């Protein structure tokens, strides 16, 4: 799957998840931006304007729902696809993700395939 040149941001407080995503996306040719929480991410998002954002739900300080809501409230970022990442696969979490504007919900641990498929499905120049 050729995704070269796409800017993908991965926001997760787990170093393992960030590294895995970085390796998978990097192998597919993506430019990967990493952030460890919502505050860290919001500063980087406005600087780099990623094409797709992966966002963990359970994070300290600013959780994924709050971060997603802030991203979607920003006029420049409103159309940026946000894919929620969670180890919980509950209906409530999915619904709550939709309410704050997320575009998809991926359960952790994700596979390289599911990660790349999600990027391909939402990347503006591929969709």
Salient structural properties:
single chain, 127 residues, alpha/beta, Rossmann fold, 5-stranded parallel beta sheet, 5 helices, 5 strands, globular
Describe the structure.
- The protein is of the alpha/beta class and 127 residues long.
- It has a single domain, classed as Rossmann fold (3-Layer(aba) Sandwich).
- Helices cover 43% and strands 19% of the residues.
- It contains five helices and five strands, in the order βαβαβαβαβα.
- The chain has helices spanning 15-27, 38-48, 64-73, 91-99, 112-122, and strands spanning 7-11, 31-35, 52-56, 82-86, 104-107.
- It has a five-stranded parallel sheet with strand order 2-1-3-4-5, sandwiched between helices.
- β3 (52-56), α3 (64-73) and β4 form a beta-alpha-beta unit.
- α2 runs parallel beside α3.
- The longest helix is centred in the first third of the chain and has 13 residues, at 15-27.
- The mean pLDDT is 93.
């Amino acid at each position: 799957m050729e995704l070269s040149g796409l800017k993908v941001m991965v926001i997760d407080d787990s170093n393992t998840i960030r590294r895995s995503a970085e390796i998978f996306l990097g192998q597919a040719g993506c430019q990967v931006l990493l952030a460890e929480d919502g505050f860290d991410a919001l500063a980087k998002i406005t600087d780099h304007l990623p094409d797709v954002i992966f966002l963990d739900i359970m994070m300290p300080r600013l959780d994924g729902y709050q971060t997603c809501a802030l991203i979607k409230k920003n006029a420049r970022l409103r159309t940026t696809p946000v894919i929620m990442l969670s180890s919980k696969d509950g209906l409530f979490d999915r619904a709550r993700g939709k309410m704050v504007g997320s575009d998809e919900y991926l359960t952790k641990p994700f596979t390289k395939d599911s990660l790349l498929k999600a990027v391909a499905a939402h990347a503006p120049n591929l969709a």
